[in-house]
Amino acid sequence: MALTPSTIRVALLAGGNSGEREISLASGKGAGEALRTAGFVVDEFDPAVKDDLKQLIDGEYDVAFLCLHGKGGEDGRLQGFLETIGLPYTGPGVWSSATAMNKATSKLFYTREDIPTAPFMYLQKGTPFVVAEIAAAMGGTCVVKPATEGSALGIYIVEGEEAIAQAIDDVFRIDDLVVVEKFIAGTEITVAVLGNEDAYALPIIEIVPRGEFYDFDSKYAPGGSQHICPARLDEALTKQIQAQAVAAHKALDCTGVSRSDFILDEDGVAWILETNTIPGMTATSLLPDAARAAGMDFPALCTQLIAYALER
Q1: Which residues are catalytic?
Q2: Does domain 5-90 have CATH number 3.40.50.20?
Q3: Per-residue pLDDT tens for 168-179?
Q4: pLDDT of the residue at 217
């Protein structure tokens, strides 16, 4: 749809109360600059401030541009608030956001669509579990991570019962739900998807992290990782993985944008890890990189996300 940015009032939401607050603020800064460059009228709000939420109710805004990561911003709660006050917003809706945020629940929908995902177990705080059974089921080396956190917060790759038990205890300090999954070695790749009904995948990004895997520092520290886009894959495999990303987008009923992360093993199988419903918008973020590779600069990307929100 054609937009006239100068006539559209945008409420940019960044900050919040999650463990990813600082990254959210950085995303908000980057998106705010891009939106203003595109010609939009932009006011900035922090959902952690009650007066800011009241201004969203009382103000006359056309769309909310979401730059919130983690709990309270990416899990459907804020989306529900915006639905209640009748303010269109960028990115997927309430159910999609909540489902994608839960790494165990989302696996059920990947499996239904035959998108390969690693075998896993789901642990709830206060419910007994046997570490020996977990180690046996996962093959010794496994990934332990919070079910409802993002940005690689609290992720451990561990081997042996003692290390697994310690990792589970550590993750329970930040989340009541823990996912333990079989470790799959390979190349880390990510695929952004844009669109509503006619969703399509952007060029695949191959991630070469500085550390053992794509952890928090690799994501956000300057020089923390190298992004190779397009990824070093042949055309057939590229199309196959892009199709899987679009299938994940649709399986979770996403609208506007999503970004799915995969591990590509030595046999050429791409195992989906998770789907992000509000990808980062910082200087080192993956979505803007993929858009640039497709010939879309940052202001044009932000404009398109608003177009999808208003179309929906």
Answers
A1: 20, 151, 220, 259, 261, 274, 276, 280
A2: yes
A3: 999 999 899 999
A4: 53
